[in-house]
Amino acid sequence: MAFHPRENWNPATHRRQVFTRRDFLQRAAILGIAIPALPGFLAACARRDAGETADLAIGTPQSPVQQPLFEDNPAIESGLSPETGPLLLYNWEDYMNAAIIPLAEAALGVEIRETTFLNEEQALARLSSGEVQFDVWFPTSQRIPVAVAAGLIQPINHDYLPNLGANVWPQLVDPYYDLGSRYSVPYVTYTSGVGYRIDLVDAADVEGKSNPWDIFWNPKYKGNIGVLDSFTDTIALVLLRNGVTDPFLATEAELIAAGDSLVEALDLVELQYSIDGSYSGIPEGRFGIHHAWSGDLVNSAYYWPDNVDLGTARYLWPAKSAGSTVRGPISSDTMAVLKGSERPVLAHMFLDFMLDEANALTNFEYVGYQPPQINLTPEYLIGEGWAADYLEPALVVPEDFELDTAWVQGPLDAPTEGLWSDQWTRFTSGG
Amino acid sequence: MPTNLASGAEYDTVGQKRWVWRGFALPGVVWLALLFLVPFYAIFAVAMGQLDPILQRATPEWNPFYWDPTVFAEAFADLFGGQLGVIALRTIGYVFLASAVCVLIGYPVAYFVSRKAGRWRWLWLMLILAPFWINYLMRMMSWVNLLSPDGQVNSLLLNLFDVTDPPSWLAGQHLVVIFGLIYGYIPFFILPLFAALDRIDNATLEASRDLGASNAQTFWRVTLPLSRNGVMGGLVIIMLPMFGDYYTPNLLSGSPRTRMLGNTIDQFFNQTTSQGAVGAALTIILMLFVSGLMVYYLRSINRATAEARR
Which of A276, A290, B18, B172 could be A226's S-S partner, Cβ–Cβ 3.0 to 4.6 Å? Predict the structure, then answer.
């Protein structure tokens, strides 16, 4: 048992010392008198950083971690009766098959309400403010250490989750980011790579290359290339393309070089960015090549116009592409019970419901992101027509997490995020 | 003491009933306090606040004695000489160009509808506004379909004009984003201008002609000056939201070369965890800038009102 990191921080003591009258006058002088001289003076100022930061238990496949338990945040007891509903879910937008809700309502016998968020920053802001009350949250695995340290989620009692051990990949029953699934259970898994159309792009320009990421700098496809409007994913892409083994350990010089590469791509290929380019931009022909999450490519089938052959979609994950020597990102999203949940037993039962193979498959049919279920292998999904054979590279197998060429995404600390954000701003300002 | 002409009764502008008239300001004051001042203070508190050491999120500092101006100052410095300056200049360029085109297109339209359309003026006005019964986002989405590589615009170019290599409209064309801004905001320029032109007394125009002015001279010396406040009001109405617009470039272009300040603020708030304070600082700086435009507008209105009273 350990004390909660939050106990060591409160805003009042975290502030610098109490202001004296002289301090106040100095502040006033800075704000009021020095403003005209700000540009020159402030260029030398260091980027805002976190000052003191909490120790987070951040794991990698090579160095897995067990999240700490806290006295003030115990797991629920075994054998409790489920509470009355409604059960409140807090999920990404379009990240659950609508058919799941009535199925779960029938199985659990309570009403289920889903509220969605657009991004995790928004979700974290709301959850940490305490303004919203939900029972189940769907964080990315990168957020688990932060969510545990901030006391947002509660430990899971595995007695309520028979499907976890029975159905889920052993690698993710005992995941590197949360050994023993103390606080989370896996929801879906995915990789990031290159989505493209073989009627618009010569496959030989993508496949069989030692550095498949180079396709994003190929002037042959000028005006038809896009990257994800997600600076962590895109800066990571560039760092991996530039040969950085672990983007999170990139030096400032490597980050500046990544920014240079993005600016270079602006001139070379008129590189664009979008969040929907892989699942709707490629089908609509707005992009021939787009940086993609594997699940989005699988899901793109719903966006394909009638007059374009669905079979022209392709996905390549550089970590497993023949001849590739560069790494490729892999990650998973999770489900967790919020600490403030008023229906924790019901929340556990919902998690177990989602870990049921049939329910996971129903969900996959809509979201396109693959549940890490033992029996839902790529062979099964393709053989039964749940996924197209030409998109087989978009499907993940448990061993993918253990590849030397797989790069597992994790959280960025504030100073590093600032540096990454600076390079993204260089790119998004138009160079 | 003024007299209430309708009832014949006198009312006291300085006496006990004064609170009644002041009371009418109450909803406005409450509205401003709740929906402007409090959120504005919250944004300021975030810009001057700290980072939560666990969540790494910008957290507001409500006590001004503990405000830290570092981030605010950095954003200020970056706007005047850094990468953000490029985006700010582009935003200003887009907004001024789009506004200028709104004036060039909107003025003749408003003039025609208010002064030349006769009894059909309301029908004209309704037709102009009809597309805007549909949500702004939906209209922009429809332009995405029209302008997509295999969209109707390119089909037209291919079939009617035999253009073999039609442009990639959505691949980061400055003109497409400016067009989107014009299309999205022009009715909000036409409407106040229409009202201003409609209020011009015909007798004033007739007097001008009686004194020997030609139609063109009447327009330049009477109509245009009298409609100046309408033009200014329309410009303020469209320019303020244009400066903060981020959906138009998001939908009509995926290129960094067309990014506006609103997109950057959105990025800091919604894509980063720790950089929310930079977004808050940019929001405040943008507000100060558009406030400058607003002050100029109000001074112009006051000056015009004072001249009219003379």
Answer: A290
Q: Does residue A291 contact residue A227 with C-beta atoms inside 8 Å?
A: yes
Q: Which helix (H) or strand (E) holds A199?
A: none
Question: Within 13 Å and on the Cβ side, how many CA atoms surround A224?
Answer: 22
Angle between helical axes of A414-428 and A252-269 (0-180°, round to 10): 20
Query: E-assigned strands of chain B?
Result: 50-51, 58-59
CB burial class (10 A; 0-12, 13-18, 19+) of residue A52? exposed
Average pLDDT over residues B115-144: 87
Contacts 24+ apart (CB under 8 A), B221-229: B223/B111, B223/B197, B226/B196, B226/B200, B227/B193, B227/B196, B227/B197, B227/B200, B228/B300, B228/B304, B229/B196, B229/B300, B229/B301, B229/B304
For residue A366, pLDDT beyond 60: yes
Q: What is the pLDDT of residue A381?
A: 95
Minimum mean pLDDT range among A309-323, A385-399, B180-194, B267-281: B267-281
Count other C-beta atoms under 10 Å from residue B304's C-beta: 15
Whole-angstrom distance, CA of residue B68 vs CA of residue B61: 9
Q: Closest Cα of chain B to A239: distance in Å?
A: 18
Strand extents, DSSP E, A304-421: 313-316, 328-337, 406-408
Chain B closest-CA separation from residue A38 CA (Å): 6
* Spatial contact of A340 and A133, defined as CB atoms under 8 Å apart: yes
Flag whether pLDDT at B93 surpasses 90.
Answer: yes
Could you identify the residue written with the tokens 């000489």? B81
Cβ–Cβ gap B73/A427 under 8 Å: no
Contact A53 B56 (CB under 8 A): yes
Cα separation, A400 vs B55, in Å, equals: 30
Using a CB-CB cut-off of 8 Å, the residues of chain A touching B67 are 27
Strands B50-51 and B58-59: antiparallel
The closest alpha carbon to B254, from B173, B199, B189, belongs to B173
Report yes or no: A24 at the B interface, CB cutoff 8 Å.
yes
Mean pLDDT of A409-421: 83
Q: Which residues, at least 6 apart from B101, have a Cβ–Cβ distance to it below 8 Å?
A: B178, B182
For residue B76, give the nearest of A27, A38, A424 by CB distance: A38
**A428 contacts on B by Cβ (under 8 Å):** 87, 256, 259, 263-264, 267
Per residue in B277-308, pLDDT (tens digit) is: 999 999 999 999 999 988 988 888 888 778 77
Q: Does the distance separating the beta carbons of A39 and B67 come in below 8 Å?
A: no
Query: How far apart (Å, rounded) are the C-alpha atoms in residues A48 and A50?
Result: 7
Say yes or no for a CB contact (<8 Å) between A425 and B84: yes
Mean pLDDT rounded to a whole number for chain A? 86
Let me know: does A326 contact A62? Beta carbons within 8 Å. Answer: no
Instruction: Please answer whether residues A269 and A218 qualify as being in contact, where contact means their C-beta atoms are separated by less than 8 angstroms.
Output: yes
Please, are residues A308 and A386 in contact by the beta-carbon 8 Å criterion? Answer: no
Give B-chain residues touching A266 at CB under 8 angstroms: 256-257
CB-based contact, A418 to chain B, within 8 Å: yes
The residue among B243, B76, B23, B148 whose CA lies nearest residue A40 is B76
What is the value of ipTM here, to two decimals? 0.72
Please say whether the beta carbons of B202 and B118 come within 8 A. Answer: no
Measure the CA–CA gap between A133 and A136, rounded to whole angstroms. Answer: 10
Which residue of B267, B273, B284 is the best one to mutate when testing the A interface, meaning the one whose CB has the most A CBs within 10 A? Answer: B273
Report helix, strand or coil for A333. strand
Chain A, 312 to 341: residues with Cβ < 8 Å from chain B are none
Q: What span, in angstroms and rounded, lies between the C-alpha atoms of B79 and B289? A: 12
Q: A54 falls in which pLDDT band (50, 70, 90)?
A: low
Q: What's the token pair of residue A129?
A: 């403010």
Q: Does A3 touch chain B (CB under 8 A)?
A: no
Q: What is the pTM for the complete model shown? A: 0.80
Name beta bridge partners: A335.
A185
Query: Measured at the alpha carbon of residue A376, what is the angle toward residues A348 and A277, in degrees to the nearest 5?
Result: 90
